[in-house]
Amino acid sequence: MSSETADPRTGQNWKVDVAGYTVDLPIVAIKPDFAISLMMVIDLGVRFGEHVGTKLAARFASLKPDIVVGTATLGIPVAIEVTRALGLNDYVVLQKSPKIHLANALEQRISSITSKGEQRLLLDRAAIPLLNGKRVLVVDDVVASGSSLKGSLELVRKAGAEVVGVGVILTEARDWRETLGSDCDLIQSLAHIPQFSRTGNSTWEPIPGT
């Protein structure tokens, strides 16, 4: 099997308690000596989605957000469940794929640890009235490097919103703290995961300090 088609899964899992709901996440190699534990929230079932939505909503209910914003693709189910748990109806999705109705969208450039190359975040201008002058809760599945989340915050603020909180299921390692700066104070997460390294052919171990 060539390096281009090699399966990056290592055969190891990392167990994490997500606010009382235990999941086993596959450890996936990003480089020969570096790996992450990968959470695909869309593969973890309806009960998990409802659980994280309820738990995150409880963290931010006292802030009385007017609307929830999530980022495509894996932030969408988080946004839906948090919106439902808060008793709200509308939510806004920041897209990453250009579509015909996004030709004139507000745009922010980002990068991600799990995606190759630079990406764009796109906000449909038709959604701006939902955000302008509103108290907004931004949610996502995982924050790792912080680049994607920083882009989301900048784009929402371009639309005239006040970001009152940021909710994520998992924080990963610590790089995001430097990227987000003072916005770290807005973040609430349900659990934390490290990153992993190995020596030679040994098993993957958490990197100290992550």
Automatic annotation (TrEMBL):
Superkingdom per UniProt: Bacteria
GO molecular function: adenine phosphoribosyltransferase activity
Pfam families: Pribosyltran (PF00156)
Domain Phosphoribosyltransferase: start-end pairs: 56-181
Keyword Transferase assigned: yes
PANTHER family assigned: PHOSPHORIBOSYLTRANSFERASE, PHOSPHORIBOSYLTRANSFERASE-RELATED
Protein name: Adenine phosphoribosyltransferase
Protein species of origin: Rhizobium tropici
